[in-house]
Predict the structure.
Amino acid sequence: MKKVLVVLVLVSLVLTAVFVTGVAAQEKYKVGILAPAVTHGWVAAVAYHAEARCKELSDQIEYNIQTSTNASEMTAQLDDLKTWGADAIVAFPQWTGMEVPIHRAIEDGIKVVNFDIAIDVEGVYRVAGDNRDMGVQGAHYIVDKIGKEGTVIILEVPTAGSVSELRKEGFVETINEIAPDMELHTYATKFTRGDGLKDMSDILIRHDQIDAVYSMDDETSIGVLKAIEEAGREDIKVVTGGGGMQEYFEMMPKNKDIWIQSALYSPAMVKDAVDVAVKLLNGKDVPKETIIPTTIVDRTNYKEFLDENSPY
């Protein structure tokens, strides 16, 4: 009887050891993050939020974040992630030329989630804000504040690809529909306050009367507002923005003469992109495209969006 008990105990211990070893040996999924090098506060916040989410999922995944300054460097980093053994990659490609390497990664069996900027590759998943609706909302906001006639400056950013194209498209089409007599002038700039200041300073010289500025980015808009202040202009009644920058939010109640607006396009939505990657690796059904709705922020509701812990 004792021998039988000893045998049963030994078998139980062996089975327990095997089970524990098996659980311990389960490998975590490997998720790579490809992001641009920091050229803008919003981009910096994307990397911050991506890493924060990866840390929250550390019981399920290992992660590897790479940042690059151009498509060639990002391509090399994508190859490095493949060598590392990435099961999924969240890619934020700000340049053209990433279509072929991303397509190859998908062919190699890697799940690819494209964040923000649209990229035309079969099999890629995408998470982004509603860029076109940001333009639609901007048009309605400006018309609501200045009426159906006036002079509006559109600040597009050609280097931002589909982001700028969709925001401009939504804005122009909506203005043409709801305020066809509005006078529109388009100028190119970049998503930095320095460019916003420089370009808007030139624009103010060209136009004696401006009623509103359709700017697509909070950083740009800060530069725009600085140019307006330095020029002593009092004709401009609206400056829009986009992104969700805390500094910009705090400016909203301080300027009573200009309606300062931001179409919230939070960098924190990259967390959703990481979540999509993990769901795919766990075999769950995920829609090919996840679009985050637009929220408008101005002096009437900015307090709801203040976050002292935000890096942007």
Remarks:
- The chain has ten helices and 13 strands.
- Residues 87 and 224 are 43 Å apart (CA to CA).
- The first strand starts at residue 29 and ends at 36.
- The two ends are 71 Å apart (CA to CA).
